[in-house]
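Quick start: read one record
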Amino acid sequence: MMVERKNNEILVRFSAGTKAYKIRSILDYLRYEELTSKSQATEKAIDILTKESKTVRWEKIKKEIGLDD
């Protein structure tokens, strides 16, 4: 593995023999960290949004399968 810093980026190189699926999960986590690093959302706001979206989705599912009587 080789780590190199260029301008505003960090490059990480792995040998071709490294299993890609193992690297992918780490990269997914790092991408999440990158995307959320400047977020100002609070845990409470995220919880409220999650609850609202689940409620809306459940209502749609109930209607689709005929449970909205």
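The beta strands are 2-6, 9-13.
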